[in-house]
Write a structure and sequence with these properties.
Elements lengths: L7 H10 L3 E5 L3 H10 L3 E4 L3 H4 L11 H14 L4 E5 L9 H13 L5 E3 L7 H9 L4 E6 L5 H4 L11 H14 L4 E5 L3 H10 L4 E4 L7 E4 L1 H4 L17 H17 L15 H5 L1
Parallel strand pairs: 1-2, 1-8, 2-3, 3-4, 4-5, 5-6, 6-7, 7-8
Helix pairs in contact: 2-4, 4-5, 5-6, 8-9
Length: about 280
Amino acid sequence: MEQKKVTVPDLARMKAAGERITMVTAYDCPFARLLDEAGVELLLVGDSLGMVVQGQPNTLPVTLDDIVYHTRLVTRGARRALVVGDLPFGSYQASPQQAVESAIRLVKEGGAEVVKLEGGVRMASAIASIVAADIPVMGHVGLTPQSIHRLGGHRVQGRRQGERERVIEDARVVEASGACAVVLECIPLDLAAEITAALTIPTIGIGAGAHCDGQVLVLHDLIGLSEDWTPRFAKRYAAVGREVVRAAREYVEEVKGGLFPTEAQAFSPLGKAANAK
């Protein structure tokens, strides 16, 4: 039996019912199809693709064209899951008008059903403008990877004096501006719990503890495709990367040893008709 399509109103319903929300990043059609089949509710086409797909040192070089392209691939594989597209650095910070134009591209060309952007108070006008264009918005506060130069790297937010109040205010403004959900990244678990209790919109945590309304993980961390470094807050549920290496090594050995392909895997020069005689 085909499962019901996840929609934006479902997120509010799930929070009210105390049902945890799952989100995983996806960057192509095959993995989107597999994650969708597994029952993941939200597929995030994140600008994390810059690091895990493109091999960049951070998310900053990712372009809107990159996100539109990968979102288009993911939407082809997602039947039930709600697809969220990230607005990359430089595609929304200049003005609310730029933010709306970028969000429209992500919806029209990429097929995104929700757009995500980083920032709280400073992005209030951008969020409100996109929502006014009838495009659902997911916020992102706490550690915002597009701000790594200002923040001094990927470090926990909300510990130092003044930071806790700033994160709370950012989250409240994101909700007040019309967002349908907000990602809380790398903040203390008690702060995440406080924000989750204060907001009516769902919170999606990453490195923010178990008190959020949902959780998000980067696909490559979840299935073990990131061999160099995995954040301590992530959990590896499989070692797919090592399995790929094992399979490829076996292939190399069989080709070099003359074991692949076998005669049974070869075609007759005259085709099937000749074999049928």
